Fold this sequence. Notes:
Domain NAD(P)-binding: 9-92
Strand content: 15-25%
CATH superfamily: NAD(P)-binding Rossmann-like Domain
GO molecular function, one term: aldehyde dehydrogenase (NAD+) activity
CATH class: Alpha Beta
Helix content: 25-40%
Organism: Neoarthrinium moseri
Number of helices: 12
Pfam families: NAD_binding_10 (PF13460)
CATH architecture: 3-Layer(aba) Sandwich
Structural class: alpha/beta
Oligomer: single chain
CATH topology: Rossmann fold
Strand order of the largest sheet: 3-2-1-4-5-7-11
Region (Disordered): 275-296
Radius of gyration: 20 Å
Mean pLDDT: 97
Amino acid sequence: MTPKIFLTGVTGYVGGEAFSQLYSNHPEYEYRLLVRNEEKAKLVSAKYPSTERLQLVVGSLEDEDIIEKEAAAADIVVHTADSADNEPSARALTRGLASGHTAEKPGYWIHVSGTMLIAGLDKAEEDWLRRDTFHDIDDVALLTDQLPDHCPHRPIDKLVLAANDKPSVRTLVVCPPTIYGRGRGPVNQRSMQVYNLTRFTLQNGFAPVIPPGTARWDNVHVADLGAFLGLAVGAALDPGKRSDPAVFGRHAYFFLEHAAHVWSDVARAVAAEAERQGRLGDGTRPHVRERSAEELGNPSWALHEHGVAARARKFLGWKPVGPSLEETIPEIVESEAARL
């Protein structure tokens, strides 16, 4: 039987990359793609014309009836559109998957959250919570059952995880860290964290370092994230993997990480590359300056995050192979300069 996949966020950075890889590798699957409006639908159709196996569904994340209906009809849902923080879509997907499936034939929900969930917990007020590293196998009970609601993305994570209480729903939650690299989707091909830092640098003539300059994050190339989502879809179609609670279920919680960076090092690398490209040519020095988090609007560049991605490697055989963040900085500076 041909798998039926409902994907949200095809016009976004992550969803666009995920669908690019899925469609390239499995054009035989049936796809239903949620797009916000007719204007977005035209942009998607320009790259992916509708066929018998590929259909666009016009609706927003607040159109719960549409989302519920599509989830009920799908074998697999891949939710990437504002998935970490949008409540109406999470509730609609839960209802749709529950009503359209049975315990004997569950619906599978692949949900994109994010490691902002654990950012800054190295300085948490709660003694029991304060740590600088979280392991997605060893610490899974803490990640899924114990984190407080004030952690970013946690309220939606709880809704997704609770869906497993229904016998007809199985979920897989993935938390990517800093994502970089040019996406291959039909609309947005740009990430945010490093790109916004680069944009600030080009606009202001210097790269900001937030004291003490030690904040560290994990990172992953967008193509490696897309490859993981493809592996997750494959797991939902594999009788052995989809029945494994380590892959789909309440404790099926995945981090991703290829390498790590220190934000002050990234700032210095961006400034050096922008100077090399002649984009900081006003003679003003230095091209790296300290600024407080408050002055910069409290960006994530001030926070520490480290999540060990053991689960993806152990249970899905995920191996990141994309270029490093450092290797990608020249492309990032060029792309942000072009946008400006």
